[in-house]
Amino acid sequence: MVSKRLTDDQRVVVNTQARVCMAIAPAGSGKTEVLIRRIERLLEESPGESFRLLAVTFTVKAAEELKTRVSRSIGEEAWRIDADTIHGFALDWLRRSGQMVGVSPDVVVYTERRDRVDLLRRFLDSVEEAHLDEGTLLDILNRIDELRTDLVKPWEAPDESFRGSSFRLRELYEAYLTALDDAGGIDFPGMLAKLLDLFEADPAVLRRVQRTYRQVLVDEGQDLTKAQAQLLRRVVGDGLELFVVADARQSINGWAGGGMKWAEMLVGPDCERLELRHNFRCATRILALARQVAQHFNPPRTDAEPPPGAPEGLVLSYEAQDSEEEARRVVAWIEGLISTGLDSTRLIPGEEPRVVPEDIAVIARTRYGLDDVQAELVRRGHQVSVQVDAASFLRSPEARLFHALLEVQANSNNRPAWRRIEEELVHILGSTPAIAGDEYELDDLLEAVSGTSSSSLVETVSRSTADADGLEGIMAGLGAHEYIAEPDLEQLVGWWLEYRASTAYQDRDVGGFLRYLLRVQQTRPDQPGIRLMTTHRSKGLEFRAVAVVGLTQGAFPDYRALGDEQEIDEERRTFYVSVTRASRALLLTWPRVRRTRYSQRDADPSQFLVEAGIVV
């Protein structure tokens, strides 16, 4: 039984034999370690058995880290752990068994809003509906997503006009789902809904899932949505074991329908409830500030305690005249950390005081709030890694073109990939070659780019098949010319060799390689440099030094939350998550004059600074 280096609280959580258990794990309490140790224990106690464990994490990166760490200690038995996001789990089973509910193995995944908007617009235009502007279409999609997150079926949706127009919400909902089906596509809400539909339509699939796993382990349970919790509830049923790690203090996905109530619904009233009581991440001064913020939660909450011998750390704050001065002060603080390191008197004896850029994060409530700091860092010659959206992992338009060509090779109906091909050709050639008709084919594209610098790359893909032999030819052809910039070419060839080494020949194809590349994009280390991110992107991460910027009333908390205590409380939890990303040094800044996209205005310090005792 695993117990080495665990606290008493952690050991109880790792070793509990309860069929259903919820572990309350505050920031920095070692929940990842506990989750991994529990998996190790379950596998060590059942050597040679065939059952698997399903670990559901908030991000693909967290899933990969979990599986990698388990593999190091368990070795051969690690094949028995399936770690993925809830959407990745659902899509995997749908690709295997989803034909009954209209999901094919090569289903096109719609992830970007503009592709989803285009899909809805095209469908409405095809039935001769009046043109709707992009803002209205986005509002429609947001409303439809809310209904789907709450598991409201199209025929159950309100039969009401949308924005007072002739459009009925129920009809728009049905139209969007029809457009997705017609395009052979699926989006994130659809992955959950379709798998639930599949369990109803073919109970044998659900039985196969339940026979595969003995225990389901869920990380970040406080941010589950109703649809996610319902899906996991169906998987667990009355026979599987369930272990959920959650913390109401870190529930920040209410805007997307997430909340602690769904974790409570998942585990039910009779589960065993355990708690981790120490924060091993944050220095005492940072933790004291976090504990003070937690007292203002609704309802007020106690927070984790520091372990014996915890370092003091450092909390600083600064009020700037405007956002430009704020950026200069933040960058000066960062440069001081990099040049002189942390004050060793505020660290654990013997702890390394040196700070490298990758140890530092700047966090803002929105992407816009990072602009001035980013500009100042770049102006002063610092490398930055901006982590706000799932940006492409390939830098050159030629490499991104190749990636999109592979996508349409796998499925010629992949409209998002065709849109990316058009965009990259504009970057490369200065214009989009004319392709006759609305139904694209690679041969049409090859004819359109004939005589251009892109023709060789398009020909490499278009003249090959999507099976194992074709993929071998595509990758061999890729390395035969110098069209793609060397850094991207090296990356692609390296990932191909990794995929080739880890996948049996008969299982290789273009679709499999693309799925491998997607996982690479979501899990590989970020570019070097100082990390810049929004508050929601900081979830689950930690850094030695963190600056939280733009802390004015109306920016953080967001102006749309003002006057609504429930929304203010979610903003407060988001602030709590931001400050608890820091382990040793925390800087809180705000400008007296706040610049918006359209004007400048005087600004008051955030109410969270008052609640934290920073501003009187």
Care to count the β-strands? 16
Strand order of the largest sheet: 3-2-6-7-1-8
Q: What integer value in Å does the Rg equal? A: 26 Å
Average pLDDT reading: 90
The description of the largest β-sheet is:
6 strands, parallel
Number of distinct helices:
23
Q: In terms of per-residue confidence, which ranges show pLDDT below 50 for 5 or more consecutive residues?
A: none
Tell me the helix content. Answer: 40-55%
Gap between N and C termini = 51 Å
- Backbone structural class: alpha/beta
How much beta, percentage-wise? 5-15%
Please tell me what the overall shape is.
globular
Report on the structure:
The chain has 23 helices and 16 strands. The protein has 616 residues and is an alpha/beta fold. Strands 3-2-6-7-1-8 form a six-stranded parallel β-sheet, with helices on both faces. The longest helix has 18 residues, at 323-340.
Describe this structure in a few short sentences.
With 616 residues, the chain is an alpha/beta fold. It has helices spanning 8-15, 31-44, 60-74, 86-97, 113-126, 134-149, 169-182, 188-201, 203-212, 226-236, 260-267, 284-294, 323-340, 371-379, 397-410, 415-429, 442-448, 455-462, 468-478, 486-502, 510-523, 565-579, 607-611; strands at 20-24, 52-57, 81-85, 108-110, 185-187, 213-218, 241-246, 272-275, 314-320, 360-364, 384-387, 530-534, 543-548, 582-591, 593-595, 600-602.
Secondary structure elements and their pairing?
Elements: H1 8-15, E1 20-24, H2 31-44, E2 52-57, H3 60-74, E3 81-85, H4 86-97, E4 108-110, H5 113-126, H6 134-149, H7 169-182, E5 185-187, H8 188-201, H9 203-212, E6 213-218, H10 226-236, E7 241-246, H11 260-267, E8 272-275, H12 284-294, E9 314-320, H13 323-340, E10 360-364, H14 371-379, E11 384-387, H15 397-410, H16 415-429, H17 442-448, H18 455-462, H19 468-478, H20 486-502, H21 510-523, E12 530-534, E13 543-548, H22 565-579, E14 582-591, E15 593-595, E16 600-602, H23 607-611
Parallel strand pairs: 1-7, 1-8, 2-3, 2-6, 4-5, 6-7, 9-14, 10-12, 10-13, 11-12, 13-14
Antiparallel strand pairs: 15-16
Helix pairs in contact: 1-2, 2-3, 4-8, 5-6, 5-7, 8-9, 8-10, 10-11, 12-22, 13-14, 15-16, 15-18, 17-18
